[in-house]
Amino acid sequence: MTALKMTRRELLLCQSLAKRLPEPGDLFTGIQGCLTVLPTNPLQFHRHSDRYLLMGAPFLHHRFVLVTCLREPGCIVLDGSVFRIEPGQSLLIFPYQSHYFARLEHPERISWLFTTFEYPAPETLEPLRNTPLLLTPQDLQRLQRVTSASLPAQKGGNEEVHDMPLEVALLLSGLLQNQGRRGKHFGALSLPEGPQTLFLRPLFDHIDRNLGGLLRTEDLAQCVHLSPSRLRARFKHTLGIGLGEFIRNTRIHRACSLLNSTDQSVSQIADQCGFNSVYAFSRTFRNIVGKPPTLFRHDRYQ
To answer: Is the domain of 54 the same as that of 90?
Structure first.
């Protein structure tokens, strides 16, 4: 088909759609969009193995991360909840949200796309928090356009680099609209975790309920009906991180959330997160986050 014929076809389609438009009652009031500002500083990367997913260190940063499974399902732990995503599904990780990736059953088959960005109005994206998102064909087309806009920038060009924030905004807008319709008509999308991660749910529930106190391995093992040694080994194999280190990181993630969203004192937050002194809390916080709690809170307002 020639370019001229394609142009005529698109013009006819536009004309057909235009004829369906009703006469507006008010020529000066338009339609409110889902997003009021564009995402900034977007970046995409692809993972074809779980080498970079099972790093052990806590993932702690100020960016949004939209994880899309293209091939090979897997589980993601968000704030102590386990979510399984299948091909054609996404999960949005919020800034400073505690997240870990469970070991995949077939890591050699993995194809996961990560779309990361910053967004100055995070409350707008709250309907997407902790919810597996089923991508529609239109969502997938928008995701393809994001990647198409990203490729020239990744390769050093700049032909389409300015389009990427807009394409990410269109993708997020579509996801928000779909989630709103699903909430009204279809209920929340709920997926079971894989059999290798079933023990995590009661374990995380116990950790969450008792995070402000003493968490003994013996008590954790009892709540999932495993011996302490078996629990430690199975946990390490599943998440690539030791149980004790995970609990410590969970305390710090909770502290980051409280520092970022409340005006509680540092000593109050230290107590809620299970530290027996402000000194121990500040030392651990600095070691993991790279700055003391007071500076972390100060940077929130910058």
So the answer is: yes
- pLDDT band (50, 70, 90) for residue 105: confident
180, 203: one domain: no
Instruction: Please give the single-letter amino acid code of residue 282.
Output: S
Number of structural domains (the chain) is 2
Q: Give the residue among 168, 197, 179 at the shortest CA–CA distance from 73.
A: 197
Q: Rg for the chain (alpha carbons), in Å?
A: 23
Indicate whether this model's pTM tops 0.85: no
Burial 75-113 (b: 16+ CB within 10 A, else e): bbbbbbebbbbeebbbbbbbbbbbbbbbbbeebeebebb
Taking the mean position of all CA atoms in its chain, how far away is CA 159? 29
Which parts of the chain fold into alpha helices (H)? 3-19, 137-154, 164-185, 200-209, 217-223, 228-239, 243-261, 266-272, 278-289, 293-299
The most distant pair of C-alpha atoms in the chain lies apart, rounded to whole Å, by 74
At 103, list the tokens.
């070991």
Q: For position 183, what pLDDT does the model report?
A: 43
Enter the DSSP assignment of 100: E
What's residue 67's pLDDT?
Answer: 95
Q: How many residues comprise the chain?
A: 302
pLDDT at 58 over 60: no
> For 146-199, how does the pLDDT look when each residue is reduced to its tens digit (9 = 90+)?
999 888 766 665 544 468 899 999 999 999 988 766 543 333 344 455 667 788
Q: What tokens does 221 get?
A: 């093992």
C-alpha–C-alpha distance, residues 165 and 163, integer Å = 6
CA separation for the pair 82, 197 (Å, rounded): 8
Contact 301, 295 (CB under 8 A): no
Domain that holds residue 55: 40-185
CATH number at residue 80: 2.60.120.280
112: part of which helix (H) or strand (E)?
Answer: strand 111-118
State how far Cα 245 lies from the chain centre. Answer: 21
Amino acid at 184: K
